[in-house]
Amino acid sequence: MHEMAICLGIIQIAEEKVHERSSSRVRSICLEMGALSHAAPEAIRFCFAAAARRTIAEGAALNIVELPGVAWCMSCSKSVEITRRGECCPCCGSYHLQVTAGEQMRVKELEID
């Protein structure tokens, strides 16, 4: 389950910021997550709750902002939204798509005490 490793990384980022600012705990974390990031938002939420136990992030709210997958269709020259890799262009039906957005995952905001 790679979602647990992702959550441990999120907590590590939060711990570094808390120590930089001489704070005591994390109140909330805003995570941007692309539709093509290969992680399930519900699994991230579940793993985060377990990974945050007995850390500075225990009890912190995890807000996930889901971003769409976007691809450039080489056949019809349009930027199109996709929900997963391997699907066809919703405009022309071509499978010649190049992913341009939606693979990212980043901690966008931290609220700390």
TrEMBL record:
Keywords attached to this entry: Metal-binding, Nickel, Zinc
Binding site for Ni(2+): H2
Family annotation (Pfam families): HypA
Residues where Zn(2+) binds: C73, C76, C89, C92
Family designation: Belongs to the HypA/HybF family.
Family matches, as PANTHER family: HYDROGENASE MATURATION FACTOR HYPA (PTHR34535)
Function field: Involved in the maturation of [NiFe] hydrogenases. Required for nickel insertion into the metal center of the hydrogenase.
Record-given protein name: Hydrogenase maturation factor HypA
Protein species of origin: Bradyrhizobium yuanmingense
Gene: hypA
